[in-house]
């Protein structure tokens, strides 16, 4: 199927519908300019569309870069995850070498955060047990609760640093990946 300027731009605009209007207009302006320049040079619309490439690939690249920028400005793991998942649309390599490790490491981090929360809850459970069931004396329960709380706090501090490092490393890799895709080594 041959792409005219209208069909090309309609498809590209549809694929970029998730992006805020202002940003989308800025991006689309460049592509409209390309078609305008091609027309002024006597180039056919189909040829200009072929020069630009597949609108789906262009949209994937633009969305990928946008999501990385959003993750960086908001420091949000949700936005970072969206940008990692956006890499899946850029090729099999990214599915295997980006998405897989990201999910695996994120699962380990979530599990470790659950362990930290469990340690804190264990401290509370020891105190509650001391009051209702009286398995431990108050001195024993207090000592155990303090140990559990201290372990939870230490693990939480370490995990906060580890999580921030993981976030920053992932963001740096995604930026590197973006430069590689665009050919700016």
What is the distance, rounded to the nearest whole angstrom, between the alpha carbons of the first and last residues? Answer: 34 Å
Q: Give the percentage of residues in beta strands.
A: under 5%
Unreliable stretches: none
Percentage of residues assigned to helices: over 70%
Radius of gyration: 26 Å
Largest sheet: none
- Overall morphology: rod-shaped
Structure overview:
- The protein is an all-alpha fold and 185 residues long.
- Helix 1 packs antiparallel against helix 2 (21-40), helix 4 (55-74) runs antiparallel to helix 5 and helix 6 runs antiparallel to helix 7 (138-182).
- The radius of gyration is 26 Å and the shape is rod-shaped.
- The model has no long low-confidence stretch (mean pLDDT 90).
- The longest helix is centred in the last third of the chain and has 45 residues, at 138-182.
- It has a domain at 92-182.
- It has helices spanning 5-15, 21-40, 45-52, 55-74, 77-86, 92-132, 138-182.
